Amino acid sequence: MVQAGSSESGKELAAKSAEVIFTAWKTLGDAQKFYRDVKRRVERYGRSRDALKIMPGVMPIIGATEKEAKEKAEHFKSLIPEKAGVRLLSSLLNFDLSNYPLDGPLPPLPSVESNNGAKTRFELVTKLAKDENLTIRQLYQHIAGARGHREIFGTPVQIADQLQEWFDHEAADGFNIMAPLLPSGLEEFNQSVIPILQERGLFRTAYEGNQLREHLKLQRPTHPSTVQITS
Fold this sequence. Notes:
Radius of gyration: 20 Å
Order of helices and strands: EHEHEHHHHEHEHHH
Largest sheet: 5 strands, parallel
Helix content: 40-55%
Number of helices: 10
Distance between the termini: 31 Å
CATH superfamily: Luciferase-like domain
Strand content: 5-15%
């Protein structure tokens, strides 16, 4: 059972019945706050903390050097068509931005309470714009590639370091890897980053079963052995 979203009702649903939760956070502090909150809720339902795996999305952009990785990241941003970027951002905010200057700030927006779209994503996007003082163009460039999820870049070792930091400090149980290119981006991650994580004892060296449940170390749910049907 997989739940996606970080609203209050979403967190409560995940704590009660989900086994995996997909989420999107940009900073370690925000991810830790979410992680600890959800794990406390899980325990309130009498479940083990390990019964729910929290897996934020992350887009790794890998280079032979940090400079090369940054250049790749900028190149990917430059490929986003303006109309597509504005259209995506408008849909995430549930507000038409097509008549506003791209190199200006976000206009005043309706409150999150009056937003009929995805409230969690609305809050994430507007917080990012405010915290980093981004223009509309800069904001859609941040959002379009990873859809609001965290982007990291660097050498394979630097990518592994950033993933390990979140894993070691109660921000994630694992990650939903969102490669910038398919299939080459995933192949690059598997060939260059996974071996480093394996050397650190952070990633399996062989599968322990045949199902995703076993790969995530999730217990198989128990079901009543008999069902009584009454008319």
